[in-house]
């Protein structure tokens, strides 16, 4: 949305700009409050095309190196976030999600950034409240005093806001890193243009998401453990996903921790209050658990030397996360413990998806969103189960991101070695800033103590700020980065945005070898890591929001790109190094798990056998499906490819300009145009033959990850010599281009790489169109296709960029030739686009070895001839004279695009609203004038002190009809007071408020909060005449929206504006007319001077924008009329009928006008106020000694502007 208002301080630009902050500063009444006030008074008175992806310009001109907010979080610099911001992408129009320990909605850095959720349902299992430290308070009965739930119990959480004494500050800190707003204070989040949908775990960051030993008497039985409830967490995640979140951050919670004792052996030890088995194998026996003895009060028993007394001696452990396969036990314990908690065992077997982490995945898969999960902070070689869960449910992998951590030292990235490694989850892991991260916080009594450190001078529940570290702080940087990338690629699925982040990540990460951990990781790094392939330490690397702006860096899957109406440009070199390496690694893993499965089948019956056979069966099934590449979802699993579709007729286009070496080629499908340089369509080798006929087998059972990565890099060099493939499908368009002017990421004019060693072949299917690039105005643009295959029904046509077409609009031609090195194009049939202003001729050369296209201007066509009214003619002619983005877009557009663009540009909603408001203000002036005239019986009420207090409710319903027909509903409540001065003069003042709704249907809508005030008076002249006079001012605070369609780009833009109308009036009436009866008739003449002004607005449809500047309007009105009163009595109540007929002629600026700017040009006008006929009818009654009540109707009828209204008045004299 684009908002343009009056000048105010902009926190984004850090300067004064046109913005909506002006309105926020006014402290205006809410619409609902005004509406209620008006309604109350009225009740008393008885009244019944494809858009090139383009960033916002809101951040233009900022020096990020010196911007205090940006510099506050070093993580932004580490991810090159300013590069994305400079291109205008900061998460705008993207919804993100968080599940954590609540987020403080009242924090000033988060106000307006968060969206609440609520959940209801029933628990599906019996368990406890997951508190890590609960063990300190367990008594002899082994029950958890922190609370429990039972299967079938109801849960009902009305809000996900931070709850004091239930949640902690963790979720507030994480939320700030993701979407903390940019407002000129403190810091801002990574994706500050996004909204964050909040889900609440119901606990704190100390909530333990791994199995907790709830029965310490039998630690070897899975039924002795408790895990979190599937139903509760599915409800939480579903609420966030269904509210629109594309990515959900999961920084919350911790695995139960194990204290390791002794110098040589590892022991399980619960004497420190830790719960057991975060890294254990699930087939552990009680003898392997070193269990502390307890006193009657539940405290740890100690001997005379203060040493812990244990119930048993324990045995050394042999399996943990630092040992290959140790994670199998952790997974098995999750599954078995979860199943044991459900009473209905038929619905909760081991193989069922009953653990809470299954709920995360099930929701992610259903809604095709991405879960972002921390690896953990315990210096393990593998992540905790939650981050690695896709290893056990492979169908979740594309919906998963695990996050490790890095720190910044002297502006260089260093791996944080005491966090958990990517390990077996490296294929879906990244690392992100996780050290000393500054963000929002709340004084919670846990993380932040009142009166101390960050809580100094604050009490519980107050907002504050803090710098914390951990993978909890790393994950929100990733979620924020995904939000920024999603704003850059609005047409992509969340899983595709994830892949862009992976494949453009920065792998230049160092290790601090001054520490033992650093030396350990350096050694591991040296042994396994190859650039381009995920590392077992940090996965893909650190998100790079610079490189991420230019398309994916690799393909790691088949990419079905659904452009819709968008167009985009990818300039990164796109390989599939990682996918090739994974093929090799998977082959080695398949051999290994096959052997492990055979060994597991020979084990004695028990947990170990069950765990290993279940796990290795899952892995073997998955790896075989990938290898075979034939099952649904696995076809050509290791072949990266791009298939593009778009909305028919939208002009949706994908431009490729990198030197690309993915194996699967590119398809231009229905509704899409795909063009690129010859080297940009990949290196077509889906069978891994490297064009020599020999299939590359790759791995053996002993192949290492380093060997796989090295082979993949070498293969990529070989692929640079293999031609790509472009397949043009039915309804698609595609071709090779020789140059490109970047319209998306400001790279300027681009040409093919001279050192490129491969080109592309093209296959054109029936109904597909081969495009021939025409760009040269002096010769012929030449491109080459290595091989052409075309069938009967294949088409060929010319293609040119709008900027090139603009060069020949006033004469000249564009030419282009494509030559086929192999094959021929004899079956290609020339067809031309429906271009309004150009003629294109495409010719297939004899023998079909080349195609020539020429594009020339059609001199018989001009912009103005397609206009359908005066406003459109003005705009069309101005566009033609000015040029610019809209002009260039329309040059290559069709009739539909032209019509929709002119319909947008001649939208006179603002102007018609202005003249409708002028009439409404005149009615307010008439109301004030009538109070001064004391028309009707009210003038005979006793005036004890010569002062009168009055109140009026007005309701008008009218329309202003020009290009856009605007229905205007106007309501106002006025109160005033006046006093007689000198016997012949009455002076008064009034004030009021109301609303106006201007509804133009599909052309847009404006809702206005109105303030009215003024002065009025009347002076009698010798009992035969009276002069009325006054000044009335109306101020409107408008909020509106209207659709925008520019070329093939669409939007629905919101705006806030101010409008002011000031009216001066004077009127003379002859009061001496004697008709010999009680009827009183007054002829009158009047004059009004009206000054109206309104703020302009800015509209945007992606990369195209224009402004509408409403001109100040000055007009006058001369009025002739006659009015009359006829008194009568109904019972004892004195009453009077009133009537008024008048004619007014407007002169001056009778039509509101606006000038278009930006990418548009021209002048538009609105409905005209010319001759206005008015009629008024009313009745007044004297309902008390000093009180009168009146009800009246007023109708105003002009050619373009009309209104009908009711008003009710109560007048009290005292």
From TrEMBL:
<dbReference type="InterPro" id="IPR036709">
    <property type="entry name" value="Autotransporte_beta_dom_sf"/>
</dbReference>
<dbReference type="InterPro" id="IPR005546">
    <property type="entry name" value="Autotransporte_beta"/>
</dbReference>
<dbReference type="InterPro" id="IPR024973">
    <property type="entry name" value="ESPR"/>
</dbReference>
<protein>
    <submittedName>
        <fullName>Outer membrane autotransporter barrel domain protein</fullName>
    </submittedName>
</protein>
<dbReference type="InterPro" id="IPR036852">
    <property type="entry name" value="Peptidase_S8/S53_dom_sf"/>
</dbReference>
<feature type="transmembrane region" description="Helical">
    <location>
        <begin position="33"/>
        <end position="53"/>
    </location>
</feature>
<dbReference type="InterPro" id="IPR050131">
    <property type="entry name" value="Peptidase_S8_subtilisin-like"/>
</dbReference>
<keyword id="KW-0378">Hydrolase</keyword>
<feature type="active site" description="Charge relay system">
    <location>
        <position position="472"/>
    </location>
</feature>
<dbReference type="Pfam" id="PF13018">
    <property type="entry name" value="ESPR"/>
</dbReference>
<keyword id="KW-1133">Transmembrane helix</keyword>
<feature type="domain" description="Autotransporter">
    <location>
        <begin position="942"/>
        <end position="1214"/>
    </location>
</feature>
<dbReference type="GO" id="GO:0004252">
    <property type="term" value="F:serine-type endopeptidase activity"/>
</dbReference>
<dbReference type="InterPro" id="IPR034061">
    <property type="entry name" value="Peptidases_S8_Autotransporter"/>
</dbReference>
<dbReference type="InterPro" id="IPR000209">
    <property type="entry name" value="Peptidase_S8/S53_dom"/>
</dbReference>
<feature type="active site" description="Charge relay system">
    <location>
        <position position="170"/>
    </location>
</feature>
<keyword id="KW-0645">Protease</keyword>
<dbReference type="GO" id="GO:0006508">
    <property type="term" value="P:proteolysis"/>
</dbReference>
<keyword id="KW-0720">Serine protease</keyword>
<keyword id="KW-0472">Membrane</keyword>
<comment type="similarity">
    <text>Belongs to the peptidase S8 family.</text>
</comment>
<dbReference type="Pfam" id="PF00082">
    <property type="entry name" value="Peptidase_S8"/>
</dbReference>
<dbReference type="InterPro" id="IPR022398">
    <property type="entry name" value="Peptidase_S8_His-AS"/>
</dbReference>
<dbReference type="InterPro" id="IPR015500">
    <property type="entry name" value="Peptidase_S8_subtilisin-rel"/>
</dbReference>
<keyword id="KW-0812">Transmembrane</keyword>
<dbReference type="InterPro" id="IPR023828">
    <property type="entry name" value="Peptidase_S8_Ser-AS"/>
</dbReference>
<dbReference type="Pfam" id="PF03797">
    <property type="entry name" value="Autotransporter"/>
</dbReference>
<feature type="active site" description="Charge relay system">
    <location>
        <position position="100"/>
    </location>
</feature>
<keyword id="KW-0732">Signal</keyword>
């Amino acid at each position: 949305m684009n908002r343009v208002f009056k000048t105010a301080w902009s926190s984004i630009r850090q300067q004064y700009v046109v913005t909506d902050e002006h309105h926020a500063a006014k402290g205006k009444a809410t619409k609902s409050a005004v509406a209620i006030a008006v309604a109350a008074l009225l009740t008393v008175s008885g009244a019944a095309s494809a858009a090139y992806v383009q960033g916002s310009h809101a951040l233009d001109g900022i020096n990020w190196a010196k911007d205090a907010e940006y510099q506050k979080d070093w993580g932004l610099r580490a991810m090159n976030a300013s590069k994305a911001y400079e291109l205008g992408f900061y998460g705008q129009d993207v919804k993100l999600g968080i599940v954590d320990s609540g987020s403080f909605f009242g924090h000033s850095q988060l106000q307006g950034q968060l969206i609440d959720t609520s959940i209801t349902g029933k628990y599906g299992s019996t368990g406890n409240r997951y508190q890590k430290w609960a063990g300190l308070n367990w008594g002899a009965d082994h029950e958890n005093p922190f609370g429990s739930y039972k299967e079938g119990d109801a849960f009902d959480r009305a809000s996900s806001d931070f709850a004091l004494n239930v949640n902690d500050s963790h979720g507030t800190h994480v939320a700030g890193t993701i979407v903390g707003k940019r407002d000129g204070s403190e810091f801002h989040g990574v994706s500050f243009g996004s909204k964050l949908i909040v889900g609440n775990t119901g606990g704190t960051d100390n909530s333990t998401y791994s199995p907790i030993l709830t029965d310490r008497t039998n630690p070897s039985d899975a039924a002795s453990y408790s895990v979190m409830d599937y139903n509760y967490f599915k409800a939480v995640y579903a609420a966030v996903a269904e509210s629109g979140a594309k990515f959900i951050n999961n920084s919350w919670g911790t695995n139960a921790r194990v204290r390791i004792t002794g110098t040589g052996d590892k022991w399980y030890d619960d004497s420190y209050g830790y719960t057991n088995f975060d890294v254990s194998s699930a087939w552990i026996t009680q003898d392997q658990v070193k269990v502390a003895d307890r006193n009657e009060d539940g405290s740890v028993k100690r001997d005379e030397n203060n040493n812990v007394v244990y119930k048993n001696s324990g045995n050394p452990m042999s399996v943990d996360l630092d040992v290959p396969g140790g994670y199998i036990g952790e997974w098995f314990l999750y599954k078995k413990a979860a199943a044991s908690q459900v009473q209905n065992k038929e619905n909760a077997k081991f193989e069922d998806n009953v653990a809470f982490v299954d709920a995360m995945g099930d929701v992610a898969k259903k809604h095709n969103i991405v879960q972002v999960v921390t690896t953990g902070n315990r210096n393990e070689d593998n992540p905790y189960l939650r981050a690695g869960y896709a290893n056990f449910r492979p169908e979740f992998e594309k919906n998963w991101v695990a996050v490790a951590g890095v720190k910044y030292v002297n502006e260089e990235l260093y791996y944080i070695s005491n966090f958990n490694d990517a390990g077996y989850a490296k294929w879906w892991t990244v690392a992100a800033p996780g050290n000393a991260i500054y963000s929002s916080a709340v004084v919670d009594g846990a993380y932040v103590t009142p009166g101390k450190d960050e809580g100094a001078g604050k009490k519980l529940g107050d907002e504050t700020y803090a710098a914390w570290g951990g993978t909890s702080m790393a994950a929100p940087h990733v979620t924020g980065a995904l939000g920024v990338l999603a704003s850059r690629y609005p047409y992509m699925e969340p899983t595709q945005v994830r892949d862009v982040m992976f494949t453009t990540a920065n792998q230049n990460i160092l290790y601090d070898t001054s520490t033992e951990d650093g030396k350990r990781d350096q050694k591991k790094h040296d042994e396994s890591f190859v650039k381009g392939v995920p590392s077992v330490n940090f996965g893909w690397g650190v998100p790079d929001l610079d490189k991420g702006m230019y398309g994916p860096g690799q393909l790691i899957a088949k990419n079905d790109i659904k452009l819709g109406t968008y167009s985009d440009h990818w300039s990164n070199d796109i390989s599939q190094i990682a996918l090739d390496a994974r093929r090799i690694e998977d082959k080695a893993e398949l051999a290994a798990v096959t052997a492990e499965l055979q060994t597991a089948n020979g084990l004695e019956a028990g947990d170990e056998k069950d765990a290993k056979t279940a796990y290795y069966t899952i892995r073997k099934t998955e790896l075989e499906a990938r290898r075979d590449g034939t099952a649904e979802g696995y076809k050509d699993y290791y072949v990266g490819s791009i298939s593009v579709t778009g909305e028919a007729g939208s002009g949706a286009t994908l431009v490729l300009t990198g030197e690309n070496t993915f194996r699967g080629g590119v398809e231009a499908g229905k509704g899409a145009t795909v063009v690129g340089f010859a080297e940009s369509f990949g290196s077509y080798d889906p069978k891994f033959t490297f064009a020599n006929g020999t299939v590359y087998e790759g791995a053996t059972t002993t192949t290492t990850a380093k060997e796989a990565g090295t082979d993949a890099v070498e293969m990529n060099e070989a692929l640079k010599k293999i031609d790509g493939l472009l397949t043009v499908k039915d309804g698609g368009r595609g071709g090779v281009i020789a140059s490109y002017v970047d319209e998306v990421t400001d790279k300027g004019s681009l040409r093919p790489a001279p050192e490129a060693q491969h080109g592309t072949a093209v296959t054109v299917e029936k109904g597909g169109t081969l495009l021939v690039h025409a760009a040269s105005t002096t010769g012929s643009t030449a491109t080459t296709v290595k091989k052409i295959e075309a069938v009967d029904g294949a088409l060929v046509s010319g293609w040119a960029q709008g900027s090139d077409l603009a060069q020949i609009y006033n004469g000249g031609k564009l030419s282009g030739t494509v030559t086929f090195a192999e094959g021929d194009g004899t079956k290609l049939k020339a067809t031309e686009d429906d271009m309004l202003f150009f003629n294109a001729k495409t010719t297939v050369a004899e023998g079909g070895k080349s195609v020539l296209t020429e594009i020339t201007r059609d001199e018989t066509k001009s912009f103005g001839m397609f206009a359908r009214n005066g406003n459109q003619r003005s705009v069309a002619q101005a566009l033609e004279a000015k040029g610019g983005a809209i002009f260039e877009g329309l040059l290559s557009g069709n009739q539909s695009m032209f019509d929709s663009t002119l319909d947008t540009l001649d939208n006179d909603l603002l102007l018609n609203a202005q003249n409708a408001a002028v009439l409404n203000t005149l009615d307010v002036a008439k109301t004030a004038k009538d109070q001064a005239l004391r028309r009707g019986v009210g003038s005979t009420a006793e005036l004890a002190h010569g002062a009168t207090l009055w109140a009026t409710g007005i309701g008008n319903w009218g329309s202003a009809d020009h290009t856009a027909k605007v229905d205007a509903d106007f309501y106002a409540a006025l109160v005033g007071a006046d006093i007689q001065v000198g016997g012949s003069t009455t002076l008064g003042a009034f004030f009021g408020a109301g609303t106006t709704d201007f509804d133009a249907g599909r052309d847009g809508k404006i809702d206005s909060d109105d303030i009215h005030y003024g002065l009025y008076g009347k002076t009698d002249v010798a009992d035969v005449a009276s002069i009325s006079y006054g000044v009335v001012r109306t101020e409107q605070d408008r909020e509106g929206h209207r659709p925008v369609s520019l070329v093939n780009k669409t939007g629905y833009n919101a705006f806030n504006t101010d409008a002011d109308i000031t009216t001066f009036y004077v009127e003379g009436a002859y009061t001496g007319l004697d008709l010999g009866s009680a009827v009183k008739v007054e002829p009158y003449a009047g004059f009004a001077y009206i000054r109206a002004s309104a703020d302009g607005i800015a509209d945007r449809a992606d990369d195209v924008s224009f402004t509408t500047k409403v001109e100040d309007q000055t007009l006058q009105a001369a009025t002739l009329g006659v009015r009359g009163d006829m008194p009568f009595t109904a019972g004892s109540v004195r009453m009077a009928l009133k009537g008024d007929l008048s004619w007014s002629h407007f002169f001056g600026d009778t039509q509101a006008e606006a000038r278009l700017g930006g990418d548009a040009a021209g002048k538009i006008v609105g409905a005209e106020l010319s001759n206005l006929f008015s009629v008024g009818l009313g009745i007044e009654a004297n309902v008390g000694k000093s009180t009168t009540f009146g009800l009246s109707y007023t109708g105003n009828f002009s050619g373009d502007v009309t209104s009908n209204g009711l008003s009710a008045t109560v007048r009290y004299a005292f």
